Amino acid sequence: MTLAMKKMIVLFLIGLFTLQSCSVSSEITYHKDSSSTFVTDIDTREFMSEMQAMTPDSLKQKEFGEIDKLPTVWTSLYDLEKREGKIKTQHPDTVRIMKKIFMKSKQDDRKLVGLSFKMDHFTADDHQVLKNYNKREKLPLDQNIYNAWDGKTLTIDTENFNLRNIEETLRSKSSKEGTEKIEGMMMMFFKEIGTTLKFDHKIRTITGKHDWLKQTDEYSVKIDYDLKTLYDKEAKLKNADKKIVITTE
Q1: CB atoms within 10 A of CB 40
Q2: Which of 48, 77, 112, 159 could form a disulfide with 98 if both were Cys (CB 3.0 to 4.6 A apart)?
Q3: Per 3-state DSSP, what percentage of the chain is helix, strand, and coil (rounded to 5)?
Q4: What residues pair up with 104 in beta bridges, in sequence order?
């Protein structure tokens, strides 16, 4: 992983942990060709202004000097590593995945005001390769990207209604003391988390129910995580089917 990308991932995580000064929106779009696209956008304008105001001038270059190296247009992980001459593997499957994962930043007067992360038109095979790739790189991905989609029907495993990938990413970048506090930190800092699932075609039927999943329009449903319930082992949901099947026209 390149230095610029590491900076972006760290800032992504900082953004997630400061939702009072950042807005985060995620969406998974399910395409009729059986692929799906995952996009997360983070508005970091207010947060970065606060961080830079708190950072001594002597440390600003060290802390924020890599921001200029972040791409401002969609750029694949493969191209980011190639640009820095640090491609670690030429394995065909890994290279293929790296060419379909994109990142970009939004900058204003050389200040970072936004981050975006995209996985473009991933197939079921791509997701299997991604699982192995992510064991090493620890990207903060939405678990719902692994739900089964065949171009018409989405089968949602509600066991994926969790934040494990984000937790594991945080653990991989925290001290031992910090990893023991991850769960408490999640409860403290996350105010609201939701993921929109959007379809190219209209939704025909939804079978199964869960308290956190609601249909928002003819093409979309949204998962709103209840953090208190998620981390309370004794909490019970009114509706908590293990599988939810969404069929489109």
Answers
A1: 21
A2: 77
A3: 40, 30, 30
A4: 116
Q: What average pLDDT score do residues 52-77 get? A: 71
Reduced to 3 states, what is the DSSP secondary structure of residue 209? coil
**163, 228, 237 from 234: Cα distances, Å:** 18, 11, 10
Mean pLDDT confidence for 28-32 = 96
Q: Does residue 61 surpass a pLDDT of 80?
A: no
Q: What are phi and psi of 19, to 5 degrees?
A: -60, -15
The per-residue pLDDT for 75 is 93
User: How far is residue 72's CA from residue 106's CA, in Å, rounded to a whole number?
Assistant: 6
pLDDT over 70 at 55, yes or no: no
DSSP state, residue 69: G
Inter-residue contact 207 to 199 (CB < 8 Å) = no
Q: Tokens 């473009």 correspond to what residue? A: 120
Q: Are 106 and 72 in contact (CB under 8 A)?
A: yes
Q: How far is CA 187 from the centre of its chain?
A: 18
Give the pLDDT confidence score for residue 161 in this predicted structure.
84
Handedness of CA 27, 106, 75, 10 (dihedral sign): negative
Tokens of 196: 């929109």
Kind plus residue range of the DSSP H or E element containing 24: strand 23-30
| Cα separation, 223 vs 154, whole angstroms | 14
